[in-house]
Amino acid sequence: MFGWRGQLLRVNLTSGAIRKEPLEESVVQAYLGGRGLGACLHAREVPAATEPLSPANHLIFTTGPLTGTLAPNGGRYTLVAKTLPDGALSAASIGGNWGPELKYAGFDAIIFEGRAPEPVYLWITDGASDLRSAAHLSGKTVSETTDLLRRETDEKAKVCCLGPAGENGVSFSVVVSDYSSAAGGAGLGAIMAAKNLKGVAVRGTQGFRVANPGKFRDAAMNIRATMAATPLTGKGSKLYDLILVADRVEQDSRPSAGGLARPHGCFGCTTGFSSFVVDGENEETLPLAGDVRPNFVDCRWQQYGLFTDLGLEFAATKAMLAAFSKGDEADEAKLARKTAYGNGPRPCSSRQWNPFPAQPRRGGYPPTDRSGCVAGGYIVIPRLADPDGTDTARHRWLLAAAADSAGLCPFALGTLEADVVAELLSAATGIDYSPGEIMQAGERITRPANGNRG
Amino acid sequence: MGVILITPEKCTNCRSCELACSLVHEEEFNPARSRVTVLTWGREAHSVAVMCLQCEEAGCMAICPARAITEDKASGARLVNPTKCIKCQMCIHICPFGSNSYDTKGRKILKCDLCAGEPQCAKVCPSGAIVYGERSTVNVEKRQQAAGKLKAIVRGVRASCSVGVDNYCG
């Protein structure tokens, strides 16, 4: 098997048993990986009526065949589980470095079953794995947990973990990897916490091969060059005001106290920006940044850092603060902390669905597709890139589903078309994918029965 | 003959250089077997690409007891001859940047060979943090930036002199 590692890890948290299982070739060929694979495995193994917070719910981490490769923006992995309030299957895609590291350690996916009797974390290194007590990590923030896990395992380990918000059952809690990349929008922090799982640390040095290295390199280099040359991410483009916060901060001559001094992105990010987005007077609003003007970038960065460190989803937390905080930023920070530690306003409990949804998107995008870094707002980007609407929203949605499942970041979708995804996938896996088959995979992945309520 | 120029403040931690390097040399995606390594301080969101800079007075070349490291005149790279190399790893110990490493899987020294004059890391780097170019011209941009800053400062000083509010310039 090329592209995929061909192996998944099944961890029964109740008994502590860990088992390696082969990946089914027919399944990954059809569903690629990511949310497609995760939803397929989940739907097959977990009864539809399962309560999200019960031990019977599975929490599945999946990568795609292009995760960890030279494909542009190929650093994604996905979390899949039944989520609150109604137990619908949800997927949240997330960046950082954790997904590629899992593949270098020898696995495409991890399935967590049951509930650990006491808080634990999983340590994976080059094919070996170990469940360890996380009792000493309870209540620790994301950065504290990440630092401690790296100290206990390997300084080079990549860590995804919960902050206190997840542990305290906040409905809009996130799972965070590499300190700042958050799987938001589906309240997966609370689901992971219900399993008594605080985090997963991974270190991999094994590497993996693709079917046709020469062809893959050419295809990846070509599309990277196209992306670099495209006005989508360049200065002066329509999207410039919207996306390149990091660049803007760099241009800003003021020293940014604790903020970002330059772009610092995810694994494989060709576009050089982090997924933190600002909205000027543009007609579309991305959830993370709906309320921000350029001059507030610095302070926003600090807020994003604080909320993420606590394990709170940014957009929902902002909406919650708008409803409950009358004060300034210091007051907002105080209330966010209280919420994360379980003393916030009553509607924040995980027993209810997130009462503070991000601002609805316009443009006809299916509002149910909630996967993505901090609520999936990125799907608006291709539309802005192509305002004439030659691509239908549905086409983009299906393509996003396939690319997402393959392990690509949908931020790249302004330039990526089905033929490029097909070319990359074919060179990586050795299976001949046509652009039509990529769209068919998108159809398959987004089928309602396959759990794409988001 | 070219030279690698690393600009750490442009590095975005995408690690594309590691992937291109391991793909070209080892035919696999594996940062652990790359000749270039991105070191990251995740908390501070900082990262720096570290790799062999092909020192003119290369310690690795001088110390190699098997004389296995030689200069490639065409590319300017210091190359390890794998048939001569006795894997004593002295070149790893002596490198002041910690650039070289030992590949336990392939049982060999991992040292940048500039990809025969077309370094793939520089080709793939999306932000210009790793650039390969002619020795005389590769750092022109940096020089211009520094000169620009000096110009701004000098102008500022002159402006404050001409206003003469507090006779700051004496």
Short description:
Helices cover 35% and strands 14% of the residues of chain A.
3D structure, described in words:
The complex is a heterodimer of chains A (454) and B (170). Chain A is an alpha+beta fold and 454 residues long. Chain A has helices spanning 25-31, 34-45, 98-104, 142-152, 164-167, 188-194, 213-229, 240-243, 245-251, 297-310, 314-324, 329-340, 380-385, 393-406, 418-429, 435-446, and strands at 7-12, 18-22, 59-63, 77-83, 88-94, 109-113, 120-125, 128-133, 158-162, 175-177, 181-183, 197-203. Chain A has a single domain (1-454), classed as 4-Layer Sandwich (Aldehyde Ferredoxin Oxidoreductase,  A, domain 1), CATH 3.60.9. Chain A has a six-stranded mixed beta sheet, with helices on both faces. In chain A, strands 8-7-12-9-10-11 form a six-stranded mixed beta sheet. In chain A, helix 10 runs parallel beside helix 12, helix 14 (393-406) packs across helix 16 (435-446) and helix 15 (418-429) crosses helix 16. Chain A is globular and about 55 Å long. The model of chain A is unreliable at 231-262, 272-298, 350-389 and 450-454 (pLDDT under 50). Chain B has 170 residues and is α+β, with helices and mostly antiparallel strands. Chain B folds into two domains: 2-131, Alpha-Beta Plaits, CATH 3.30.70; 139-170. Helix content of chain B is 29%, strand content 19%. Chain B has five helices and eight strands, in the order βαββαββαββαβα. Chain B starts with a strand and ends in a 7-residue tail after the last helix. Classes of the chains: A alpha+beta (454), B alpha+beta (170). The interface between A and B is medium-sized, with 39 and 29 residues.
